[in-house]
Amino acid sequence: MSTAILTGSPLPGSPLEDDLRALGFTVTVADDAAALTDALAAAPAGGRVALVDPRFTGHRHSLRLGLTDPRFDAAAIPGAVTARPQARPALAAALGGATARTAPAATRNPVAGGARSAARPATAPLADRVAAAVEAAGTAVHRPELGALVAAVPATEAERAEAAAAVAAVDDEAVRLRSAVKSRDGFVTTHLVSPYSRYLARWCARRGLTPNQVTTASLVTALIAAGCAATGTRTGFVAAGVLLLLSFVLDCTDGQLARYSLQYSTLGAWLDATFDRAKEYAYYAGLALGAARADDDVWALALSAMILQSCRHIVDFAFNDAHPPAAGSGGTRAPAVALSGRLDSIGWTVWARRMIVLPIGERWLLIAILTALTTPRVTFIVLLAACGFAACYTTAGRLLRSRRLPGPTPQAALTLTGLTDNGPLAALVSRLPARRGPFPAPAWALGGTALLVATALWSGTDGGWVTVLAAACYAFAAGRAQAAPLRRPFDWLLPPLFRAGEYLTILVLAARSEVNGALPAAFGLVAACAYHHYDTVYRLRGGAGAPPPWLVLATGGHEGRTLLVTVAAALWASGQGFTVALTVLAGALALLVLAESIRFWVSSQAPAVHDETGEPA
Predict the structure, then answer these.
(1) Which pTM value belongs to this model?
(2) d(Cα 7, Cα 74) in Å, to the nearest integer?
(3) Which of 22, 16, 151, 161 has the alpha carbon at shortest distance from 76?
(4) Strand partners, 83
(5) Pairing of β 2-6 and β 49-52
(6) 581 and 567 in contact (C-beta within 8 Å)?
């Protein structure tokens, strides 16, 4: 239950009360300090409360942005301030201090744009003075960008008429629809989907549908597409391509619906973050099953595509977490950054560069067309070539940037440590007295990964225990890489190198075993590992820290799982034992990480992580 307290009697003819009720508020009028204090105390303890100046003139969407966004404990726009239960004590204290001083209630405010009032605090509207006091006391107050929307507290009839004219001149529904779309996204999403998906989002909002329901519908549609692909028929492949595109439209719609109606939630953030990967990788499995019906085994290609895409993502995550955009570089710009800035001045290069990195819209369109017109084998080969080029392009750019960027901050170093997913073996090695030596952390990681993958490739069917020895060296290198804090500019390479080491080893050992069912089992194991690593990413991005130590211990870390897989390959590579071992490991890991992930993301402590950056997915 949300309560809006008007700090005075409403003006005749003002739509303010109707607007607040339409936004779900129960409206109370308090004419003096004592009534304000009583009304605040009487508001339901578990609900949101807002103080609104009765002279407020503006768009209803301004009030929606300023007073209903669930992501922020406290927020304000000119003439209104709100607090969720966590910030209610700060609001009450600020209100007590503001009402204890005698000050004029009215002041001249800007008419549009949501800029802060230039008036002195003593003469500002009560709601504005309370918001400033809450902020001064240490509670963050979110102030949304209103753009063309109006939010003002006119002091005179002339100013009120001016503000009303400004409100009438701007269609807030049009602004609301535009703001439902990300400000930065891929070409396909921006030009081929968003022009109509925003209206689908509005249609869903008007029928009471939630973003989580649309997200689930997108997942179900993608799973049906995977089932169609698994039929192995041309009709099934065409249907699969169409349904995959429909799933992507719904995937765009759920985020636009969340922004349109401000229906953000922790559960929604988790679903949106994980379902994209589940949909894409399930579709890969469907294509592999469909190819098998035509006696074409493409499981190795399907697994390679999943590995490449997961490693691309961890490159993005690790680099951005190690070198956030706000990080300074002492005024020195890397050559790649300077070139990027020059290219941005040429309009078409912006879209070309966004398409080159093959974000989710471009990628899924490519997959859908190839599925409908060609075979699963051709689809995977083209996809691997395109994603491989995109990976080289983005990684090269990040390497060039890293030459001039400062090393990660202490907080960023902790994030990188969490992303590496080192287990107990690497942790034990990292605590050995010997220092990391002259080799930087990426050199240890690259050396251990290269040794392990090369050994798995060339050891042959009789060299299983040699691969086990290489896996032990890999675990040792992982520990040495983290013997010191990850504070150097290139230390962000550790997570992608370790992902490549673990995933590629599983792929190579399963492919070399030539045992029926080994590659599908390996696909399931890598999928479970990838889910665990994506879950870790979004926990860290939400400021909740890495998964609990007991989970890292139970899953063994990347080096522990890799060692276990190499031992299983050495013992049972020539029979069904290896397939059984991979299947059991995949099932146990999936149950473990899913159970803990679900427990965490539905808990009240989970962060609300919403990607508004438009980064390629």
Answers:
(1) 0.86
(2) 18
(3) 151
(4) 49, 74
(5) parallel
(6) no
